[in-house]
Specification:
single chain, about 110 residues, alpha+beta, Aspartate Aminotransferase, domain 1, 6-stranded antiparallel β-sheet, about 35% helix, about 25% strand, globular, YjbR-like_sf, YjbR protein
Length: about 110
């Protein structure tokens, strides 16, 4: 059973991650936000690709669900942390973190 403290610890161990307020949540980002944590530490929203979102929701439907709005259609995925194991949480964080890296400039 994962917690908000587990998310915070793992996310901050990923290279370049910083934490900052984001509305009523805490946002973890590198060049872009890759996960947000609810104020009560029970829910997180991960930035996955739509395909990754579909896979996560299929594999762990009790834990993951699309965010119910346009952000969800882009891959943002809600997770109930208490339904995730530590390995599931770390894998989700690493997957989302990979999408938050600085983009390489286009070749000329």
């Amino acid at each position: 059973m994962a917690t908000g403290e587990d998310l915070r610890r793992i996310a901050l161990s990923l290279e370049g991650t910083v934490v900052a307020p984001h509305f009523d949540r805490m946002a973890f980002k590198v060049a872009r936000i890759y996960v947000t944590l609810s104020a009560d530490g029970r829910m997180a929203n991960f930035n996955f690709t739509p395909d990754e979102q579909q896979f996560k929701c299929m594999m762990l439907p009790d834990a993951f669900s699309p965010v119910p709005n346009a952000w969800g259609r882009r891959g943002w995925t809600a997770a109930e942390l208490s339904r995730l194991g530590g390995e599931d949480l770390e894998n989700a964080l690493r997957m989302a973190w990979a999408h938050a890296q600085p983009r390489k400039p286009a070749r000329r």
